[in-house]
Amino acid sequence: YTQAYENSFRQTEDKAPEKIVTDFTRPTPSYTHPTFAEPRRDDSLLRDPSALATPPVDATSTLSDRAQEPPVKREDTTFNSLDRRGEDLSSRSLGTDIGRSPLASLESEERSERWRGLLDERREESILGNLRDTGRDAFVSPFNERDFKDDDTDFMPRKEEKIDLTPKTEPESKPTERLSARLTETRSARFVETTPMDEPKQETVAPPPVQVPKILRPYSPPPLHFFNCTEVKPDCDQQEVENNKRMILATLEGFGIKDATISSVTYGPTVTRYNIVTPINVSSKKIIGLADQFAVNLHAEHGVNVSFNYGDGATSIEVPNRRRQFVHLGVMLTGVGFVSAKPNSLTFTLGVDVSNEKIYGDVAKMTHILVAGASGMGKSAFLRSLIISLIYKYSPEDLRLILIDPKMADFTLYTGIPHLVVNEIICRPQQAVQSLRWAIGEMERRYELFRCKSLAGTYVVNLDGYNANLEKGEQKLPKIVIIVDELADLMSVAKKDVEDCIQRLTAKARAAGIHMILATQRPSVDVVTGVIKSNLPTRIGCAVSSEIDSRVILDASGAEKLLGMGDMMYSMAGFKNPVRVQAPYIDDASAQSIINYIRDNNDSDFNSEAMAYINNASAPTGSGGFTSTGGDIDPAYIEALKCAIQHGCASISMIQRKCSVGFNKAGRIIEWMGEMHYLAEFDGSPRPRKTLITKEEFEQLYGEF
Questions:
Q1: For burial by CB atoms within 10 Å, which of 215, 286, 368, 572 has the most?
Q2: pTM of the predicted model, to two decimals?
């Protein structure tokens, strides 16, 4: 140990003595942790000035020498400087100095045996306390105390420890050995294990799970062996045709129209057409006026249809065949016009015309379609062939359907097919209104996509242009066809809401790829209103009971003379006269087999957001029951309905008294209750109308009573 002390003294011999600094408030350099750039001031001496206090003067002769000792300049409290300072302090505690030899120090120690233990213990505790304070201050973090973890308590400020001045009895050991061991233990425990300091951890929020798109199998259409593909040619009786020609010419000659000839005869599956050419000085309207006389002379029970034939330059007389023939859907699906249809079209089978040619329709060109006719005249059979032909040709990626069937009978067959937007057939009137509103929202969303793509540099005006310019990350938008089987029932429940939705969709939805097909069996002006007809350029009329209904549908007469069972007339924008066709037919068993095959061999991916929106209709809709924004029912209507259920009847005056509303609003409430069939029909008497809805039905529709 003597050699160690001499080496330590040689390191400090070259340093010139400096003036003693007694101002303990002077800032001193401190250790800078690598984590923090800003150094901290070492205030350990300010907090504990007794760390450098000297022992009593009479303890030993070395204390007087200690008072005359020149101070050693404190260096930065790095690890190396701490070691050197510890050695200097240890030398001071033994009473050694630069100018004294180690042997003299040992002799002085032997002369002061009684004070040696007390001196060593006091000096050791002071040095260790100073080092503790210095280490703590060097590692003070700019963070608050709560930023440290529980296991970082070594860096927290500690209260000053009291020094016990009583001598301790412990085994005899060299002072240098004891001091060096404790310094080493302190440095290793305080600096080595906790350096560098861990930064406070920040809580990380887990990102939301990435929605992986559902992988669907390629669409597998039903094979043709499910269809009846037998093509039947018209069965024409030449003898019957010749007799009809002679009778037609004889009738014309009897009414003074001479020199008339029959230019051609066309055989169709339902009727046979005779084209009559008259002299120039004879008006064709005169021949049309003889329609009833032709029917009598030809023994036609259902009458004959006489019309202008602009293409052939003649007047056509359509006479029903005695033996009718059916057109099978499988024959229409194998036609050239259906197989070679354009990819962006929505081609469906329309039927066979009078000249025995296959006619196909395109929903994209027809925009929106109105189908009307009397009950049992083939309207539902035509809709069945239309839907099956669409789902046979187009996959769910190209076409989606929304089927609304208030009768809950005709469209139930198609439940669960992958072409549906939602996995159900919409039957309730309130769900029907919600589905139309969802279609309006989808239309607006698509137009917003078109606008954004146009602003990005790709000019887009319709759905086909958008799908043709898809970029990475964009999905193809399918076309949507909304089919309503019975419009009259919806109009009777919520006329205003249904009419407003249909008006918006038919006016704007074509370019967005949304089309409507409306069917009704009551073609009256209160169902097929002028607002609806103005935006439905394509009309298909089945057999009706009167010429007035025919004009409501087609704006022309002729539908009242149709034969039914799929015999219909259709008119499009640009057509001068309606065209007569025989709709294709498919039986129930074949249709069931086709739908089962599509469901079993294809994957479904329904729109959950649309399903939630449609099923969000908590209460039936009605005319006048909604707010101006088309949202929920006015609470005053619900309170009035509760009052009517409690009293068992309702009248305008009672609603005024019980609900504190004006006469006009009370009248609208009574009308709403009547339209919703909550009240009995008005019989003309001034007595209150009986309430038909029960308390249990109210709770099912509107919640707790």
A1: 368
A2: 0.61
Residue in this structure with the two tokens 């469906």, named with its chain if needed:
348
Scanning 208-347, the segments in alpha helix (DSSP H) are 238-254, 284-288, 291-297, 329-333, 336-339
| CA distances for 406 relative to 412, 428, 429, 437, angstroms | 11, 6, 7, 17
User: Rounded to 5 degrees, what angle do the CA atoms 497, 499, 504 make?
Assistant: 95
Closest to 105 (Cα-Cα) out of 118, 95, 92, 93: 95
Q: Is residue 417 scored above 70 in pLDDT?
A: yes
Q: Give the pair of three-digit tokens for residue 183.
A: 């310094």
CB atoms inside a 10 Å sphere around CB 560 = 19
Which residue in the block uniquely carries the two structure tokens 């400087």? 81
Q: Rounded CA gap, 440 and 434, in Å?
A: 10
d(CA 591, CA 8): 106
The Cα 579–Cα 570 span in angstroms is 5
In a 3-state reduction of DSSP, which class is residue 417? coil
State pLDDT tens for residues 93-143: 444 444 445 545 555 555 556 566 666 676 766 666 665 555 444 444 444
Query: DSSP characters for 11-74?
Result: HHHTSPP------TTS-------TT-SS-----HHHH-GGGG----GGG-THHHHHHTPPPPPP
Give the torsion sign (CA, 519, 523, 526, 528).
Answer: positive
Q: Which residue has the tokens 């050791």?
A: 124
Query: HSE-up of 684 (CA within 13 Å, CB side)?
Result: 0
Terminal-residue alpha carbon distance, the chain: 99
Type of residue at 245: K
Q: Which helix (H) or strand (E) holds 372?
A: strand 369-372
- Residue type at 577 in one-letter notation: N
Residue where the block lists tokens 């709560």: 146
Instruction: Count the alpha carbons within 13 Å of 40 in the hemisphere toward its beta carbon.
Output: 21
527 in helix, strand or coil?
A: coil
